[in-house]
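Anyone have tokens for Fucosyltransferase? Sequence:
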Amino acid sequence: MEMSGAGAGGVPTKLEHDDAAAVAAEREPCGGGAPRREEKERWRRVLVVGCLVALLLFAFFVLGRESASEVLQIASSKLSAMNGGFTTKNPSHGGGAAKHADELLGGLLAPGMDRRSCRSRYQAAHYYKHFPYAPSPHLLDKLRAYEARHRRCAPGTPLYNRSVEQLRSGRSAGGVECNYVVWLPFDGLGNRMLSMVSGFLYALLTDRVLLVDLPHDSSDLFCEPFPGATWLLPPDFPVANLFGLGPRPEQSYTTLLNKKKITAVVNNDDDPASKNATAALPPPPAYVYLSLGYQMADKLFFCGDDQRALAKVNWLLLYSDLYFVPSLYSVAEFNGELRRLFPAKESACHLLARYLLHPTNAVWGMVTRYYNSYLAQASRRIGVQIRMFNFASIPVDDLYNQILTCSRQEHVLPETTTDNDNDDDLATAYDSNSSNGSGGGNYTAILIASLYPDYYERIRATYYEHATRGRVRVGVFQPTHEERQATQRLFHNQKALAEILLLGFSDELVTSGMSTFGYVGSSLAGVRPTILMPAHGHRVPAPPCRRAVSMEPCNLTPPRVGEAECREMAAVVDKEDVARHVKVCEDFDRGVKFFD
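Reply: yep, here.
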């Protein structure tokens, strides 16, 4: 499948697998900051510090000591990201010494892992443009403890073998060192990446080990994320037909509850009857299947009583296509820990995705070759991700006009001119050097990520036919146009992952509402995107778009559980705190996401 490069007579290249010669020829992004840019950066830091101090004083005197403490932690995370080594080589500027890029992302990544087997792990820091949050000290401690646990419990270790034997016995055992979450693939690539992140966070919160069962269509997408051990589920795992279990198997949590094979008991240490009831429970099953997909068959997973029941099960099989992290915040067992891990709630997916999801060399080769050929020399990179849904589709002309109207409203894409503009203020928009990477200066690269070529061609034509204000030169690019989603094909998924990474290297993003592809791109980029509103009812939305207040993904199908079902919700969790941080998504009024 060709990649279209929109320079003057831009020569299309091809997305191909890595080979040794291509890897050796990969170029690191080069350049450094100009003095004028550094002066602007200094003033920006002064302004940010001033605003944070004012916000801290407001929180202390108006909202109280606890809110002030949260603001202080967020401010510390922000300032650490600005001053603690989170500088990066900036490919958009030539001249001067390149700034040092913190390859470990502020301690997020473990040092010492093999560079040749996974080039992206330590090279990606040179390509990211935004480092909005440093990881909290508590998150770093939690990650290092997890890595040590994973090494002890990974496949091939004596502890893993012992756990598998316990699984074959048909029941779970108490007091074992290693408990597991097994991630199962469901839906498209964006959904899978978000559910992987969710599953990993759940493993962190519950001291479990995350293993993944990858089908062939995902076998060469991601590197091993944990040092010294694999996260791949061995093919001889005792539970058969994992890919074909579907949303409601016999071992799903709700089914087991209904059959009285597992019981959620209210935790009440002062009630002897409660203790006796707990002691009389049958031994928990060897494994439980968690159906947390769009049907949300096991919504009681998000209740404290049920979490205590699941804590006694050694093996949990996770079937989900959602980013369900925001819904964990209302669970009493996890609320406090999430606050310590992520003082800034909108940093959760951003930090976890950068920690967990590193593309393999085959994918990374596609990314770096395309970036260095078409995007590296731009002074501004804008990613535009366009997703058409069957339930919310509009004609191409209408969606194109929605994009342009949105851009004018939010001042995203370079503005084109009318016939009455002064020629002295204009520049030829369509850059003649964009395809060979020699743009430099006041040059904007627009990356289109879409299954279809129509929007790329129209946006490219707009900048070909019209000049821009402010002497901005523009290059428009689209790596692929596959025409249809083919999740069952590995090469399709590799190209899709490459595009997600390229979006993640953008300065600014325009994404489609309700698109998990766009959610992942925004999280990796560390950017609050401009979100194109979905065309519900096949009508052009008004307004056409909204600026995201939080860069967190939306949980599109949150569990609808009330106090009658989650009996401890009202008594234990601070409702005001949950309402302040878990709110309706900007792009979907039935979804929820994290806010600060």
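The chain is about 40% helix and 10% strand.
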